[in-house]
Every structure is written in structure tokens, then in C-alpha cells.
């Protein structure tokens, strides 16, 4: 199984002031997160960066 990570998830993970930061950080640290192949796209990376 794979999970597509979109811009909002990256922003929530890296921006501590984001409303969903705690949930994103908790998921990122969860052992279950390692069992799922997380994928994204070049477009999402570019959108997150800018």
C-alpha cells in the first residue's frame, strides 16, 4: 500500500505554527508510518518549497 503525501502534509510537518502540525508530527513518528510506502511528486516538492 502507498500513501500520496501532498503539500499540506509537508507544510504541517515542517511548520510548528500550522494547525495540523501535532498530528503530522505524530504520524511521521508512528511505527505504522514505516509500513506504508509514502510517495509524492516533483510538483508537490516544488509547491512546498515556494
Walk me through the structure.
The chain is α+β, with helices and mostly antiparallel strands and 50 residues long. It has one domain. The chain is built from four helices and two strands. Strands 1-2 form a two-stranded parallel sheet. The chain is flat, with a radius of gyration of 11 Å. The N and C termini lie far apart (29 Å). The model has no long low-confidence stretch (mean pLDDT 91).
Structural class from helices and strands?
Answer: alpha+beta
Strand order across the biggest sheet? 1-2
Query: Helix segment count?
Result: 4
Distance between the termini: 29 Å
Gross geometry: flat
Binned strand content: 5-15%
Low-confidence stretches: none
Number of DSSP E strands: 2
Using only C-alpha atoms, the radius of gyration works out to 11 Å
Query: What order do the SSEs take from the amino end to the carboxyl end, as H and E?
Result: EHHHEH
Helix content: 55-70%
Average residue-wise pLDDT = 91
The number of domains = 1
Biggest sheet details: 2 strands, parallel
Architecture blueprint of SSEs:
Layout: E1 2-4, H1 7-14, H2 21-29, H3 31-34, E2 37-39, H4 42-49
Parallel strand pairs: 1-2
Helix pairs in contact: 1-2, 1-4
Q: TL;DR of this structure?
A:
This protein is of the alpha+beta class and 50 residues long. It is 58% helix and 12% strand. The longest helix is centred in the middle third of the chain and has 9 residues, at 21-29.
Write out key terms for the chains shown.
50 residues, alpha+beta, two-stranded parallel sheet, 4 helices, 2 strands, 12% strand, flat
